[in-house]
Structures are given as structure tokens and as C-alpha cells.
Amino acid sequence: MNQKGGVGKTTTTANLGAALAEQGARVLFIDLDPQAHLTLHMGVDPETLERSVYDMLTDPAVSAVDVAQQVGERMSILPAETNLAGVESELASLAAEGRAQGVLREKTAALLAQGFDYVMIDCPPSLGLLTVNALALATEVFVPMQAHYLALQGLSKLLQTVGLVQQGVNPSLRVTGIVLCMHEAQTILAGEVLADLAGFLEAARPMEVPWRDAVVLQPPIRRNIKLAECPSFGQTIFTYAPQCPGAHDYRQLAQSVAGMGARG
Amino acid sequence: MNQKGGVGKTTTTANLGAALAEQGARVLFIDLDPQAHLTLHMGVDPETLERSVYDMLTDPAVSAVDVAQQVGERMSILPAETNLAGVESELASLAAEGRAQGVLREKTAALLAQGFDYVMIDCPPSLGLLTVNALALATEVFVPMQAHYLALQGLSKLLQTVGLVQQGVNPSLRVTGIVLCMHEAQTILAGEVLADLAGFLEAARPMEVPWRDAVVLQPPIRRNIKLAECPSFGQTIFTYAPQCPGAHDYRQLAQSVAGMGARG
Ligand SMILES: Nc1ncnc2c1ncn2[C@@H]1O[C@H](COP(=O)(O)OP(=O)(O)OP(=O)(O)O)[C@@H](O)[C@H]1O
Ligand SMILES: Nc1ncnc2c1ncn2[C@@H]1O[C@H](COP(=O)(O)OP(=O)(O)OP(=O)(O)O)[C@@H](O)[C@H]1O
Ligand SMILES: [Mg+2]
Ligand SMILES: [Mg+2]
Hints:
With about 260 residues, the first copy, chain A, is α/β, with parallel strands linked by helices. Chain A contains 14 helices and 7 strands. Chains A and B meet through helix 2, helix 9, helix 11 and helix 12 of A and helix 2, helix 9, helix 11 and helix 12 of B. One adenosine-5'-triphosphate sits at the interface of chains A and B.
């Protein structure tokens, strides 16, 4: 998640998830962005859906099992449509009772009982109700980020939101780390931002906060035009260009994530 | 405006505005994004503001004149704070009466009467109430965009929102054009996306829609790391690196915008 736009959230959700599936894990993708970019990226046309995440969140008769579609070997998705933008007002009556944050967790419980190793949730570029629903369900937070100045600015606000959900509805929530995207290691800017970031994370170590153990995950994902090409074919990088640097980086990242014994 | 994140909205608002001011125009910037990135980019610290756009939109006693600050020669700004994220619920009572769209227009009328040649509004990556307020005030829409597949997907939804506002509260609203950002002309992807885009705009010519005359504005803004460095100093590209390719591109863009006799 990250409220900063265009930092690589969707690209990372799709390709890290696919890399984990390639390594043998069963993966469920959930698209919580009304742009429906993860849905497109995984080859599903949002305009032809009979049921989507919107129906699941707003219609008591529709469950996650009804919405789920298979998108590859060991990969399923709960796809989004653009009508998801209306969910914040649809759930307003639940919000008044303080129950709007937990709708996703309630509605996916039966599907998750079928056993997935990883659930990868793509969020919109905001800290609204959809992102909060994702945080209420998640056990770990990955923060895709570009090593740019503007991208660094929103980090503390993002972490505050994670802290609120952790203190409220989801005490086991932790920030696992930062995924550097579109990384250009040779630029001075990247070096400066990484130094700031390292200092920020170091300072959190002694604090009782959900990001005290957060690290910059390795390797960074290098800028690679094939990562921007593959969504137009509805493919992940592993189908589109399995030997390119982008595929290599996401495979390596998946290995370090799996190695950390992620909690799913 | 563009609900797709990270496409260059803030960078274009800041630098196109500054280029127009450099050429002699009086420019007012309005930051409608709770990330407050335009505010940061223009050298104002959002954490030290006594009054911001949030106060102006929610407190009848605060006018735009109270909030405006000078940020350079012929440049002023209405700055944002992160509390702006709460404005959608603050204005909910006005929304019930259908008046929430026009608050920005009402609150800025007295300030705009002082005479600005251009008003540059930076929007968040969503099509919510803040973006709609911008559309209700604006006369022209510029769409910053990256020539990537995912960025192209949201264009028709964005234009539909512009159409709704044009048919509703702002009949004179027009889409002037697309500003290509972080442009890498040599990639195949850029070529394909531009061909799609040209076809889309051509098809709109005979239609009674606010984007019938929209063009791809020239020149495209090339990818240039100095454009990503300058916000960390609170400077536009013209103060930070006035001779770099980024400065050149935004100066040229400003000349073509001024040449079109923009309506402000
Ligand atoms: N490593 C990379 N190299 C090159 N291009 C990339 C890379 N990662 C992502 N992209 C491209 O950059 C753009 C932004 O990435 P993406 O859409 O994944 O970001 P996002 O954070 O999901 O955006 P939003 O905030 O709109 O949801 C997309 O066009 C994507 O194809
Ligand atoms: N032409 C360019 N060359 C290099 N970097 C750029 C260029 N334009 C913008 N950037 C950088 O790319 C990132 C995205 O740009 P920017 O923040 O302006 O986009 P945005 O659309 O305003 O994002 P958001 O959706 O979060 O508001 C920023 O870090 C910015 O500094
Ligand atoms: Mg996305
Ligand atoms: Mg911005």
C-alpha cells in the first residue's frame, strides 16, 4: 500500500504474487482499487464481470467464493470494477456503527478457509476505507516506493494509518518492509532518499510501533520497460518476458519474502 | 488532473505554472491534494501553516484572501495540509443539498477578482469531491499522462467525470489536452500508446463532448532526474536547474499554452 500515486503498487502485487506462485505457493489476489489495474494486469476484463469485489462488499447475498476466478496455476483473484469507487458511500451506514472497516475480513473468511499461502491485496492511492479494509485483513504490510523525494514525504502518514488499524481492529498487523520500485541506483537522488529512509527506520527500532522491524527489502526492482509492457497483454512478467531483469528482480524478491516465513 | 497515480500532475502544475509566470503572467496555484505535494514543491511547509485550503473550504469565516501566500515573482499559492483528506466528510451536509461541488468556486471568487492570468490547480489521484470542485472552477483541463498502458486505461472514466461537471455546474469546461510526462519517446510502448491515444482523440472530433478539441500538447516532457530532485529544495525547475532539458521542455510547453490563448 502507499497513498502516493504511481509508485509500483499494482506492478509489485501482480509480479511478486506470481513469483510466489511460480515457487509453489497458492496465491489469492484481491483488487481493492477502483481503477481495476490489478484485474487488468492478471488478464481479466473488468467490463465483463458478472460479480466483483463491489458486489461482495455491498450485497450480503454475494460471498467471496462467488466472486473468485482462477487466473493461473495456483493463482486466483477477487477482481474489481470501476463501480468500486462508490463503496465508501455505500458502506456509510456501517461506518456509523464502526463496522465498515471489517467488511472485507468478514466476507473473505470462508474463501480463505480453503487455504492460501499468500493473499496479495492491491490498494488505491489513498488512505480511505478500501485501504483500511485491506489493513484490517492483512498480517503484513509491504510499501512499494520510488526513491524520490515526494514519495518519501507521505511515509509517516501512511505508517500512522497502519498504527491506528493495529491499535484498533488488527493487533497482529506489522510492516514487513519497503519495496523499492523503478529503482535507478546510480542517481544521487536515490542515494539521498535511501539514506533518509534508513535513518527513519533505524530510529523506529526502539519504539513500540508496527514498523519497528521494517526493512528495505532486497533486491530493489530496477526500472525495466518490460514491466510496463506486460499489463497490456494481461500477463505477469513471468509469462511475458521470463528472463528479463524485471522478472529476475521479482523472483529474487519472492525468495527473500518466502525466506522471511511471511505470515500470509 | 488524472486519477492515475504518479503521472506527473504535481510536477506539471508547479513547473508549467512557474514557466508561465517567468513569461510575465500572474499565476495562482491551488493545492487540492491532501498529500500537499504542490505546497512542498513551491517551498511552503504544510506543517507550519496557520490557514490552509482545508480551513477555507470548511470555515465560513476564512476566505481565500486569508489563505493565499506569495511564493515567487507573480506567483501565489493556496496551500494544503494533510487534514484536507477529511474535507469529503466535512462537506457531507452540503453534498446532501447538491452544493458541495461549488465550494471552491464560491470561496475563491473574491481572490480571483484581483486578476490572475492563470489559475493552476493540482488534484489528488482520484475523481472525488476535491477533483470535482476543481472542475467546477476551471475553464480548461490539462491531463498529465505517462505513455504507459495502465495510464491509458483510466482516460475514458476521467473524461466522463469532466463531461458530468460540464453538463451540470460548469458548461464552459473544456479539455485542452494531454501533457505527456516522463516521456521516453524511443520505447515501443510509448509509440503504441500514442497511436491509441491519437485514435481515441480523433474519434471524438465529431462528438458533442468537452474533449472534442483536445490535442496532445507539444513538446512532451522528457524523463529528467532534475525534475524529481527540485521538489526536495522547495524549488521549481527554473530556480533549481534553469538550463536542464526539464526546464527547456516546460518553457516550450508554456509557450504553446500561452499561444493557445488559454482562458485562465
Ligand atoms: N520497475 C518498473 N520499471 C518500469 N516501469 C514500471 C516499473 N514498475 C511499474 N512500472 C510502470 O510505472 C507505472 C506505475 O506503476 P503502477 O501502476 O504499478 O503504480 P501504482 O502505485 O499501482 O499506481 P496507482 O497509484 O495509480 O495505483 C505503470 O505504468 C507501470 O507499468
Ligand atoms: N519528467 C520527469 N522526469 C523525472 N521524474 C519526474 C518527471 N515528472 C515527475 N517526476 C517524478 O515522478 C514522480 C511522480 O510525479 P508527480 O508526483 O508529479 O506525479 P503525480 O501525478 O502528482 O502523483 P500523485 O498521483 O501521487 O499526486 C515524482 O517523484 C516526481 O518527482
Ligand atoms: Mg495501482
Ligand atoms: Mg501529485
